[in-house]
Amino acid sequence: MKKAGRIILFKRAHSFRNGLLPILTFTLLLAPAAFAQGQGRGGGRGPAGPPPPPPVAKAAAPWDPTGYWVALVTEDWRYRMATPPKGDLTGVPVSPAGRAAANAWDPAKDEAAGNQCKAFGVAGLMRMPTRLHITWVDDETLKIETDAGTQTRILHFKPTPGSQGEGGDLQGVSIASWDRSIPVMGPGRGGAPPGASLKVVTTKMKAGYLRKNGVPYSENTVVTEYIDRLEHPNGDSLLVFETEVVDPANLATPFWTSSHFKRQKDAAGWNPTPCAAH
After folding, report:
1. Is residue 226 part of a domain?
2. Host H or E run for residue 57
3. Is 229 contained in some domain?
4. Using an 8 Å Cβ cutoff, are 131 and 147 in contact?
5. Are strands 173-179 and 208-209 parallel, antiparallel or unpaired?
6. Which residues pair with 257 in a beta bridge?
7. Is the pLDDT of residue 200 over 50?
């Protein structure tokens, strides 16, 4: 009986190995494929294929920059509403070379040479008492038009060699992005919600003036702007341009300004005028 019992146990163990083991082996072979299929369905086990492409700049906009806007000249009035006297460099951190160039400014020579628009270049344009008309050219390109000097700025969110051009004009090449960095403390720049700034970096511009009295900046200048939209309790919408101008040739340190524009309901007051040297 004991021998027979051992034979029965051996047969049962043999059946287990010859029957259940192949089943277990087959199941284990199927497991990776099943797991991979689970990943493909996005069942919480992994990504469901490649991530979707990022939204276009227009769709990603945290606020609407478009419309008509008018400058609010609440600071530096004497330097913005009229041409300052020659040699008045108050508030601008000019280098010795910049001071010498400003002291040599001659508006008549600018007019004669066709350079009457030098104060309407990218580093000085937003300081003008001007109106803006901002529109989307396409999903990745913003256009800013000014009536003062009849200038046009193009902001590229997705630049290509063909769309950027070579620069060398008054407005240069501007690369834009939605700046979503979170401040360490407090609200965003100028009181805006965190991460709501439109950042614009401009290079490759023609040399120009920071002010209409010939305060210079060179073609190697880098202009960085942070633009925010603020909603005032009285219902007004404001655009705030915080601008940094870096030009080691003519400035001893970066030059910062803050320019404000109020949104208008329509094009009332829009009056394109040509550049003037003074």
Report:
1. yes
2. helix 57-60
3. yes
4. yes
5. unpaired
6. 243
7. yes
